[in-house]
Amino acid sequence: MNKKRILVVDNEQYIQEVAKICLETVAGWEVITASSGKEGIVQAETHQPDAILLDVMMPDMDGITAFEHLQANPATKEIPVILLTAKIQATDRRRYAQLGMKKAIAKPFQPLELAGQVASALGWTFEN
């Protein structure tokens, strides 16, 4: 079984670090990080991750705009995207689903549950 590669895009360094540690420790996945939507797009093209965890509210380019760029690019169009967001009302969830997001995970998230939430959203299994 090959190791999954996850790209975490969040402008908050702390969120990147917590997500990276948890996904690597709990699920054994490889984690790449990016601090902005633009950097995330470049990292997605370069590293072709198995999934992207994408923050919604970031300066310069928000997560929705970054997602639209990813969807418009043939090299990144098929990569599943899960949002990390504090905006998680029912109307937000419906909008995200209509755009094609796999899931929205509320921030702050439970670190030890993050890998399970990602795996569940994508139909993956892992040993922990």
Automatic annotation (TrEMBL):
Keyword tags: Phosphoprotein
Residues the record lists as 4-aspartylphosphate modifications: 55
SMART domains reported for this sequence: REC
Domain Response regulatory positions: 5-122
CDD domains linked to this entry: REC_RR468-like
Swiss-Prot/TrEMBL GO biological process terms: phosphorelay signal transduction system
Pfam families cross-referenced by the UniProt entry: Response_reg
PANTHER family per record: CHEY SUBFAMILY, STRESS RESPONSE REGULATOR PROTEIN 1
The protein, known as: Response regulator receiver domain protein (CheY)
Source organism of this protein record: Richelia sinica FACHB-800
